[in-house]
Amino acid sequence: RGRPLQESFTRLVEACSDPSLTMDRWLCRLDSSRWLSHVKAALSTACLAAQCLDREGCKVLVHGAEGTDTTLLVTALAQLILDPSCRSLEGFQELLEREWIEVRGAVSRVGVAARLGALTRRHPCHPQAGHPFQLRCARSASPHARGKQEAPVFLLFLDCVWQLGRQFPFSLQFGEQLLLTLFDNAYASAYGTFLCNSERERSVLCKVKESTHSLWGWLNQPEEKQKYLNPLYSHNPLVIWPSVEPQSIQLWQG
User: Fold this and answer.
1) Residue 117 included in any domain
2) Residue 47: which domain range?
3) In what helix (H) or strand (E) does residue 62 lie, and over which residues does it extend?
């Protein structure tokens, strides 16, 4: 899926960068990029996993090619849909750590332990598990980055989270500014949180924690934290079911 996703992103950015487009031509280029189709597919799959857990009481195995890309995308989104604690600022940081960075396995929480305990992924504790940020974001966010393993999977995840926040404006404690900051730091950062390709590389080969600072330490400073909070937030203990109808999915302008 990496190459089609990268090509889709390339077409989207090219369309956004062309000031000569008429409205009809812009809508045609947007549709042909298929970026919103990727957003819809990711949300639909996450909703399916969440539905199996919440409404049918089934166990769910999410199986990707290597368990480091779309697998993490689906499991992380499913937990945001199901678990209100993942929608807090602190809980969202923990979600990113366990799904995208350290991959410690789904965490059981009060009220959703049975559901999340049944959500598993392929190779959850493999030493090479975790999203390969260095490979996927190797050059830059430029759509013309043509590395064989370049793919904006993490950007797709952030886009899906933005869609959730737009459809449920009171349910996420954090706002768009946090998503933009995470995107920036995934591609170029003064912190070590998104360095390397796996937890093994970070802890054994590069010793990232010993030689760099954590992005979370900076974000959680009181003067910084306020920038990322959603002033409309009100704790919502319910499952949030996003609409994936075409009229409900909008282009994230960032």
Assistant:
1) yes
2) 39-235
3) strand 60-62
φ, ψ at 60 (rounded to 5°)? -125, 125
Q: What is the pLDDT along the chain (254 residues), one digit of tens a residue?
A: 678 998 999 999 999 999 999 999 999 999 999 999 999 999 999 999 999 999 988 888 888 776 778 899 999 999 999 999 999 999 999 999 989 987 654 443 333 444 555 665 554 445 556 787 777 776 655 555 556 677 899 999 999 999 999 999 999 999 999 999 999 988 887 877 777 666 766 665 666 677 777 889 999 999 999 999 999 999 999 999 999 999 999 999 98
Token match 């189709």: residue? 37
Contact between residue 125 and residue 67 where contact means Cβ atoms under 8 Å apart:
no
Work out how many domains the chain is built from and give that number: 1
- Give me 89's structure tokens: 């600022």
Q: Is residue 79 part of a domain?
A: yes
Q: Does the residue 218 lie in any domain?
A: yes
Please answer whether residues 165 and 175 qualify as being in contact, where contact means their C-beta atoms are separated by less than 8 angstroms: yes
Q: Identify whether 76 is part of a domain.
A: yes
Pairwise CA distance, residues 128 & 249, whole Å: 34
